[in-house]
Amino acid sequence: ICDDxxxxxxxxxxxxxxxxxxxxxxxxVHLFDCAEDLLSAYCNVKTLPDIIxxxxxxxxxDGMETARKLRDEGKSVSIIFTTSSEEHxxxxxxxxxxxxxxxxxxxxxxxxxxxxxxxxxQKEMRKITVVSERTRKEILLKDIQFIEARNHAVYIQTEKxxxxxxxxxxxxxxxxxxxESFVFCGNx
Length: 188
Description:
Blueprint: H1 6-23, H2 35-42, E1 51-55, H3 63-72, E2 78-83, H4 89-94, E3 99-102, H5 107-124, E4 127-132, E5 135-140, E6 144-150, E7 153-158, E8 162-165, H6 169-176
Helix pairs in contact: 2-3
């Protein structure tokens, strides 16, 4: 969330946490009170947030220019503008904004702005539960790089760790086929 008004930052953070709790999402919220800090945090990294809530009227660098800079850097992050004016709505959508909330907005308006992203966010949170090293683990499907059977065991590989699990490859495969990003390969 990027907004130079502290009360708007806190209000939007509260709305996000409520929405996440109601929909079963696990979220991390980062707060920025100026666009320069947001740009320095996200312009030179590969991992971006799912959504940036961006105020338009801010001191120094405004939200429109900030969005332009993100787009010029090739960042395809979802942007929802929060602002006190309808004046920039057309320009916002030219920058491929996914939403436009006019202040003061209510929780219902906030939820409506997130509705198009809801399925995508739910997909991001899909997980599989396995037992590895006698401990129950929940692994987000988006974190799985591949799953393989070798030496009579099944391994789930994520970027950070490999899990040896006590389930068959077929059983896990049947569970994760809900996610179209997985392909079940044949032997070898």
